[in-house]
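quick one: zinc ion bound model?
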Amino acid sequence: MDGKREALRPDTTLAPAKRPENEVYVRGLPACCLRSLKEAVVRRGERRLLELRCLSCGSDWQVTSSLDERVLERFVTHGGPRAGGKHPAA
Ligand SMILES: [Zn+2]
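yep, here:
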């Protein structure tokens, strides 16, 4: 067992909260946002997050899809542009 693995699966996609049509893969994130994502994923014991807030650049990201269990455990996934409308799925 390798408990130190931090690499995230590359098939996770995120979109800016304000521009959900601009979806990107994890590797397309700015470095600071990727770091924030990793930090959020390794932090445990909290409720799932609706958005990723990057404390470095202030961007808000929503996870639109992921097959990475650690990401799914930490973030509510948003359906992306096709889902239409915003649900405050508290
Ligand atoms: Zn950032």
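Residues 13-80 form one domain.
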